[in-house]
Design a protein that fits this description.
The complex is a heterodimer of chains A (about 110) and B (about 110). Chain A is mainly β and about 110 residues long. Helices cover about 0% and strands about 50% of the residues of chain A. Classes of the chains: A mainly beta (about 110), B mainly beta (about 110). Chains A and B meet through β5, β9 and β10 of A and β4, β5 and β10 of B.
Chain lengths: ~110, ~110
């Protein structure tokens, strides 16, 4: 079965640079979530989209923005990167509000800021 | 504010024994509670979901209980195997009703052969 796809899997950037992370949800899943997980931490919710519209926002810095496109893939744009942005970034998709709220996570993008 | 607590100390058990992990929550009235497994450097994987009106849910060697009075869930792995070694995350839906999950910090289980 198709899973959530994330790219790139690894990314190394320098401080003050910009990064773009991509997420391709499971087909026919209408909701996409972005999470950030620091070392030894639990996943922290950043932002979500339902049917291509932003549906919820968590502890996402103003330097970050995200959108969902017409083909349902989503991108997380991160600017003015800081050392503290180094983390695993997960995208998850969910099959819809009339189904059980189970999340299917991608393999993650490991971002290292030097 | 909503808070989920899991035992942050690693749980070490011998193969074949039953592992029991605890999840406590405050300032929540969740309709569902979920458990996920996470291996190092990988995304969480869904294991079980239990509804507020269910006391217990089973799936193969896994069992989850949900006590809405105590605001607690217990996650059991019977006949544990070294392959069960991972971090187990408890998750509840956030109050915004958009489907987002709030995760506990996870408990790391180590099953020794």
């Amino acid at each position: 079965a198709a899973g959530v796809i994330q790219s790139p899997r690894h990314l190394i950037k320098e401080k003050r640079e910009t990064a773009t992370l991509k997420c391709y949800p499971i087909p026919r899943h209408d909701t996409v979530y972005w999470y950030q997980q620091g070392p030894g931490q639990d996943p922290q919710f950043l932002i979500s989209f339902y049917e291509k519209m932003q549906s919820d926002k968590g502890s996402i810095p103003d330097r970050f923005s995200a959108q969902q496109f017409s083909d349902y893939h989503s991108e997380l744009n991160m600017s003015s990167l800081e050392l503290g942005d180094s983390a695993l970034y997960f995208c998850a998709s969910s099959p819809g509000r009339d189904r059980l709220p189970i999340m299917y996570f991608g393999p993650g993008t490991r971002l290292t800021v030097t | 504010s909503q808070k989920i607590e899991q035992n942050s100390e690693a749980l070490n058990i011998q193969e074949g024994k039953t592992a029991t992990l605890t999840c406590n929550y405050t300032n929540y009235s969740p309709a569902y509670l979920q458990w996920y497994r996470q291996d190092p450097g990988r995304g969480p994987v869904f294991l079980l979901l239990i509804r507020e009106n269910e006391k217990e849910k089973r799936k193969e060697r896994l069992k989850v209980t949900f006590d809405t009075t105590l605001k607690q869930s217990l996650f059991h792995i019977t006949a544990s195997q070294p392959a069960d070694s991972a971090t187990y995350l408890c998750a509840l839906e956030g109050s915004s009703n958009t489907g987002k999950l709030i995760f506990g910090q996870g408990t790391t289980l180590q099953v020794k052969p």
